[in-house]
């Protein structure tokens, strides 16, 4: 696995990684969407990174499943990677043992808000994409795993909460399952790496807590991404020797 593409939602999450891996803006990545790409080499790996970009109407980062779907589609088409990594931030439950800044690798990725109780549509709605390669890597690196749960709201309705709490350890975020679907169409493995910005049962308003912890969580995310890259680079070296 030599070619690795990271797909990320917010520039605040991506900035430390772009700096640490010394990635440069990639001018031949042209898109009708606001997505932007960066690329570079790291320890023999060919790395590219695509962020969703800024919404021109509202001047905010394009978060959520639609921009993530398009960015993943274009990233896979343009860079033809061997592996996709979705790195980002998430909410988690303190009662399930999570703390601000904890980093997880997704053992499974699902939608929590696509409720279609109509025969096989129910399972289709949930997605439930397994991540066997990610689980292997998490074990090797001693990084805990969680079920990454994707929906299009930052807040949490009582219905969402009941569904989320059925999972063992939860990372609630807004992109991974959309990316997992696109990765499955390309038959490219996906590793989701998530860092906790907010505790959904912590008593603080999610948006406030998110903004307060975004920088710290993004630094921890950066460290875990580099750890994963180092491990992949080592495996690549071994495959040549
Ligand atoms: N209020 C923020 C908006 C960010 S939306 C702002 O003003 O900048 C949240 C982003 O972080 C999404 O990309 C999502 O994947 C992730 N995220 C972090 N915590 C989340 C949570 N509790 N629920 C859903 N997404 C969350």
Keyphrases for this structure?
alpha/beta, 241 residues, globular, binds S-adenosyl-L-homocysteine
Would you write up a description of this structure?
By secondary structure, the protein is of the alpha/beta class. Helices cover 39% and strands 26% of the residues. It contains 7 helices and 10 strands. The chain has helices at 11-20, 65-79, 121-126, 132-141, 158-165, 176-186, 206-240; strands spanning 3-8, 24-25, 36-42, 45-51, 83-92, 103-111, 129-130, 145-150, 170-173, 190-199. Strands 1, 2, 3, 4, 5, 6, 7, 8, 9 and 10 form a 10-stranded mixed β-sheet that branches. A hairpin with a 2-residue loop joins strand 3 and strand 4 (45-51). 44% of the residues are buried. The mean pLDDT is 96. The structure holds S-adenosyl-L-homocysteine.
Based on CA atoms alone, the radius of gyration comes out at 17 Å
Query: What is the count of helical runs?
Result: 7
Name the hetero compounds present. S-adenosyl-L-homocysteine
Helix content: 25-40%
Q: How would you describe the shape?
A: globular
Q: What's the count of strands?
A: 10
Mean pLDDT: 96
Sheet having the most strands: 10 strands, mixed
Helix and strand sequence: EHEEEHEEHEHEHEHEH
How much strand content do the residues show? 25-35%
